[in-house]
Amino acid sequence: MAGTTNAFEMAQRQFDHVADLLKLDPQVREILRWPLREFHFRIPVRMDDGTIKVFQGFRVQHNDARGPNKGGIRFHPSETIDTVRALATWMTWKCAVVDIPLGGGKGGVVVDPATMSTGEKERLVRGWVQQMWKNIGPRKDVPAPDVGTTPQMMGWMMDEFSKLQGDYTPGVITGKPVGGGGSLGRTEATGFGVIYTVREAMKHLGMDSSKCTAALQGFGNVSQYAAIGFVEMLKGKVVCVSCWDREDKVSYTFTKMDGVDPRFLMSITDQYGTIDKAKAKAAGYVIEDGEAWISKEVDVLIPAALEGQVNADTVKKISSKVRIIAEGANGPTTPEADEVIKERGIFMVPDFLCNAGGVTVSYFEGVQNDMNFYWSKEEVLSKLDEKMTVAFQGVLDMALKEKVYMRDAAYMVSIARVVKAMQLRGWI
Ligand SMILES: NC(=O)C1=CN([C@@H]2O[C@H](COP(=O)(O)OP(=O)(O)OC[C@H]3O[C@@H](n4cnc5c(N)ncnc54)[C@H](OP(=O)(O)O)[C@@H]3O)[C@@H](O)[C@H]2O)C=CC1
Ligand SMILES: O=C(O)CCC(=O)C(=O)O
């Protein structure tokens, strides 16, 4: 968890604000403010040197009125139960806003995966499944990757579950490697989904994307494909990306005002998103401090790292040129910063709409697993584009109709769908 922001307090404040606007029944509110179920467990792992290390694991199932809980598993040294609660809650709203029949869940382990060998990581993820297998499954709860976890880890988890269950069960987990039950397009899905929503926001604002610039925070899975999409689909220019440097333990911004080449930067980035500084410098990139991305004079800001990055302090640095903030990350903007962004009239594409591409293709992956029939990448991405475009339009229509901020409009759409499912099931 970034800084001192408590992500779950943030998620509850966002929800309470909209619940007030909607005059939501207090009993319904009480159900939706908290996760329905939480699992806290310890995972003993035999390390390569023969010792045993015990890791703290979590799984939170926020609400499954619309379908099985769904959401990634994050491996991060600063993971907390409140971060996982927030991320699980946002998953409920995310699946509802893109109208896929799934609920909200999230998992985590307090660990820095970069400090572990491949064998240790495999034993850790298998240990996670050994603790949770009775409470996950294609019709219960379907995990996926998030920060610090990879398709290979999802493959190991699927294998462990299948062994314990005694049946090949690819649908227990998504984000698996292609060829091992995974879907084509899942790797690109979240970043490309971000760009589909940016494209729609630009259409709404009458902006010509080929004349637009963007600055991105983070250079992991989401940011890499958002950068590629901005350059290759929108024909715009990305002037910088920032990343966390594992050796120096600080973040840096890699800037090239005539346009970064995301595919080149990917080729010099390690598996955890750290860009090789020497190679970047040799290719003409200027290396600035980690917060430089937020003060760039660009049309679009895409925070795609962790929570709480656009906050009361950093929001002041946003240039007057910025017209769109597209939240690739979950929870990057604090409620204090939201107030400033609202006042300044910057168009917000809120996280659980903006980054819903990942879970949407995860849903497609589950559908393909159920059918045991796999689609082409073109088919996956065109279905994704359609889902994201329809979802964006639904939220924009709500924002215009109710004259509310885009984040509030997204909550209104999602809350209505979840409440309806709870009513139809007789929960309320
Ligand atoms: N992957 C997915 O499908 C989805 C992810 N998301 C969200 O998107 C965000 C990014 O996830 P994802 O790309 O998958 O994760 P990754 O682990 O692939 O990438 C996250 C990147 O952000 C970097 N980072 C961390 N802190 C900072 C910082 N202060 N400044 C700059 N960079 C930083 C990380 O560096 P390091 O690893 O070195 O710490 C890493 O490179 C998260 O909020 C995640 O929950 C949302 C929807 C779906
Ligand atoms: O693909 C998924 O199921 C979940 C992705 C995720 O964790 C997220 O959207 O935050």
TrEMBL record:
* Matching Gene3D superfamilies: Leucine Dehydrogenase, chain A, domain 1 (3.40.50.10860), NAD(P)-binding Rossmann-like Domain (3.40.50.720)
> What's a single GO BP term from this record?
L-glutamate catabolic process
* Name of the protein this chain belongs to: Glutamate dehydrogenase
What positions constitute the catalytic site? K106 (proton donor)
Q: Which domain of life is it from?
A: Bacteria
Binding residues annotated for substrate, in chain numbering: K70, K94, S362
Annotated positions binding NAD(+): T190, N221
Check the UniProt entry and state the signal peptide residues, or none.
Answer: none
**What's an example of a GO molecular-function annotation for this chain?**
glutamate dehydrogenase (NAD+) activity
Question: Domain Glutamate/phenylalanine/leucine/valine/L-tryptophan dehydrogenase C-terminal spans what residues?
Answer: 183-426
What keywords does the record list, in alphabetical order? Answer: NAD, Nucleotide-binding, Oxidoreductase
Q: Where is this site: Important for catalysis?
A: D146
What the entry lists under CDD domains is as follows: NAD_bind_1_Glu_DH
Per the similarity annotation, which family is this?
Answer: Belongs to the Glu/Leu/Phe/Val dehydrogenases family.
